[in-house]
Design brief:
The protein is an alpha/beta fold and 318 residues long. The chain has eleven helices and ten strands.
Amino acid sequence: MTLPARKPDWLRVRLPAGPEQDEFQSLKAKFRSRSLHTVCEEARCPNIFECWGQGTATLMILGETCTRGCRFCSVKTGKPGGIVDPQEPENTALSLAEMGLAYVVLTMVDRDDLDDGGAAHVSETVRRIKRHSPDLRVETLVGDFLGKRNDVRTVVQAGRPDVFAHNVEVVPRLQRTIRDARCSWDRSIDTLAAAKELGSAVTKSSLMVGLGEERDEVLEAMRSLRAADVDVLTIGQYLRPTKRHAPVRRYVDPDEFLDYERAGREMGFRYVASGPLVRSSYRAAEAFLHGLASEKTTAGETPPMNRYGRKRKLSVLG
């Protein structure tokens, strides 16, 4: 399939204005002053203005260098050499306590150079955040820890995040061509299943589309995630970070995303966010803070408009 010369209109990003712009600039200045790394910026997320404007951000810990090299990701790849900043958990917690965020997604680079993959560092950071900001909701978006169940246990039971997230990224057939060779569909599914078995109240994952998958493959992947008792699913359009990364094969129409969202609700996901600009942490605060339930529109009330100008009933953690 030949891609259009320019991206479709539905992939245009709305620039912030008014209070949302003020909040975005304020958070940006605070992150800079505290030398905190955000995936929102590292991964060039198109929702950065919206999420920061609503008091939600995704912080990356354990350094800026990932030990894996996935073909969709713009985060730097290399050899960290086992180096970890022991002050990072406390410094991160103190910084967040001053920011007034409602929800933070705490993600990490893969650290295969560490014996526990960084699990203890993640759990300690969550504990420090909870100590300084008891009302701040924390989601951990973590790697697969090379399939080590004890490391998943460390994050779930020692850290006790509000949400345990791990992304499968793409459908099973595309795992080998898009993700690092050390990643796999089965290992990711096992990681998510283990987190739920070990006591995580909410588990979450994400799929990218537009990389050559078929609709039936997406639906089968969704069914596999539900079989692992995953609660929350996000589905979004893959956008190529640079020419060195995997090419976009197709721009998926917004109506197809809505079909995936409806299918996900029918499968029993507690929350589904599906749309061209949706990313794994998209509207995380709204989703969690409103509770795990489907928002019902009262009789005669107009459903909210989504980001493509279409009426939409939102399933929200609300």
